[in-house]
Amino acid sequence: MSFSSRLSPSIFRFLQRSVQFIWIVLLSGLLSCAPEKSEIAPNDLKRVLERVAEMRIQTALASDIGKPSPSDKELFEEACKIYRLQLDKAKEALALKNKDLYETIYGK
Is the pTM of this model over 0.70? Predict the structure, then answer.
């Protein structure tokens, strides 16, 4: 008599789903540990800039009067972390693509 035949069907299904859930959690954890991208594609920079714009709007809408809003520099660096881009390379790509925006965020 096998182990699964000694269990009731509902308990067996519960255990089977629990094991599947644990595998999904472990695999998603491993995938989130991906290294930072070493090359910045134009689409990567576009996504970062879109994220900066979204975060700027969100922080303005949800801001407290006594709490200062984050700067564009902080928003840009946070977006680079979210998309796992190397900050140095993202800054270089921004300087090449849109020098005026780079100077607005980081100064000359």
Answer: no
